[in-house]
Specification:
single chain, about 425 residues, alpha+beta, 6-stranded antiparallel sheet, 17 helices, about 15% strand, binds zinc ion
């Protein structure tokens, strides 16, 4: 399929008119995601639920993608000054007037190319899925290799006590400093040496609860040549963790500060779910629960017991709650440039894994020889005006060239008449 056909309108008659087709948002330094949408402001429960209900009739991949694009748009609205506002939205060459967008499809999947990507696992529900799929494969390989060599793989969860009044930035900084202090402490290194610890992989996460506020924590896969049980691990590590926390003004109870799972199954189960629950699952029961929650609590602002950052985005997308918007902004600021997944030095090579690829590179990958269609920049502006990205990709996945052409032509005509005020 070549260029998507575009209807002849007053918009496309001349180069100057073509320039006039560019939406104001494309020139707005505050971010390309800030352009107007035909339905008015983002944050309407009825529009959100209507789109989700419509997605149910589509296949799971398309429904999941539609939700992720909606939540990405919400993130862009909350932090228009960050890269997520341009992710799969602003053409790479737009600033130089040479932006062109292409649609790719292969083997039942589809991609957009020629667009900026942010690679942020914290801010962007779309990039988070791409990155976590690759990271999950690496973790699965690491566990299989360890298992084949007879190594133990243990899953540890480190937490610290916290209060509703704690600000996330300060709490997170102290928590991560405590973890660093622990792993370089004499006590930790002595225990690790006695257990033949090969290394660790640390995954950082956070939730927020109405009772105790922010809850930063990390899950750690520990690879060791020793055959250990949960009690041995806890007794060996908790004193070092507790001492490190106290160095940075934090505490933890023995019951909650360190959780240990000492089976392959626990590690494999965690890895198989990693990144999926929080970012890539299709429309499902959780959305129903959220819709029920929003309806139930509207007007008296009672939060649910525990929210992930993605739940906060869903809440703001549903109802535009300022409360959850501010929570998510605080989270986005505190986690900026933080590592989500950290392998201890030497572990990857010991398990025969190549060097890690940066998140930004993973998020920009498009398989070669998969070209399906090209969109003129004006056509792309029409697609993003109503955020029809998921629909475009759904048609490409189905190999429906005619459907894609018709969709783009229709959007372009509406974009000219309804947004630009030019007769189509
Ligand atoms: Zn992104």
């Amino acid at each position: 399929m070549g260029h998507v056909t575009t209807p002849q309108t007053n918009c496309t008659d001349t180069a100057s008119a073509r320039e006039g087709c560019r939406p104001k948002a494309a020139h707005d330094a505050s971010g390309a995601g800030s352009g107007p949408s035909p339905g008015g402001a983002v944050g309407s429960l009825s529009r959100y639920t209507a789109k989700l209900d419509a997605a149910r009739s589509d296949d799971a991949v398309s429904a999941s993608r539609l939700v992720r694009f909606m939540l990405q748009r919400e993130a862009a609205r909350l932090v228009p000054y960050k890269r997520v506002a341009h992710c799969l939205n602003t053409p790479i060459g737009e600033l130089h007037g040479s932006g062109s967008v292409s649609v790719h499809a292969h083997n039942g999947d589809a991609w957009l190319a020629g667009l900026q990507t942010c690679g942020s696992v914290w801010d962007c529900p779309v990039c988070a899925v791409k990155v976590s799929e690759c990271r999950r494969e690496e973790l699965t390989t690491a566990i299989s290799t360890a298992r084949a060599r007879g190594l133990g793989v243990y899953m540890l969860t480190y937490t610290a006590s916290h209060a509703r009044s704690d600000d996330l930035s300060g709490l997170l900084g102290a928590f991560l400093s405590a973890y660093r202090s622990m792993v370089i402490s004499r006590a930790y290194r002595a225990v690790a040496a006695s257990w033949g610890v090969l290394g660790t992989v640390k995954a950082l996460e956070v939730t927020w609860g109405g009772l105790n506020g922010w809850h930063p924590h990390c899950h750690v896969l520990l690879f060791s040549s020793a055959d250990l049980n949960a009690e041995e691990l806890r007794a060996g590590l908790f004193p070092a963790w507790s001492a490190a926390l106290s160095l940075h003004g934090l505490t933890a109870t023995a019951a909650r500060g360190l959780d240990v799972r000492a089976t392959y199954g626990a590690a494999e189960d965690y890895v198989s779910k990693w990144g999926r629950v929080s970012s890539s699952r299709a429309y499902g029961a959780e959305d129903e629960l959220l819709k029920a929650h929003v309806k139930r609590t509207r007007g008296h602002h009672m939060p649910v017991p525990r929210y992930s950052p993605l739940d906060m985005l869903r809440a703001t997308a549903c109802d535009g709650f300022g409360f959850y918007s501010e929570l998510w902004r605080e989270y986005s600021s505190a986690f900026h440039r933080r590592h989500q997944l950290q392998w201890s030095r030497g572990l990857r090579s010991s398990l025969d894994l190549s060097s890690s690829v940066p998140d930004t590179d993973l998020s920009a990958v498009t398989p070669s020889d998969t070209f399906f269609a090209a969109l003129l920049s004006e056509e792309w502006y029409a697609v993003r005006w109503v955020d029809a990205r998921a629909r475009v990709l759904s048609l490409a996945r189905a190999g429906d060239s005619a459907g894609l052409s018709a969709l783009v032509a229709d959007l372009y005509a509406r974009y000219c008449s309804e947004y630009l005020g030019v007769a189509a």
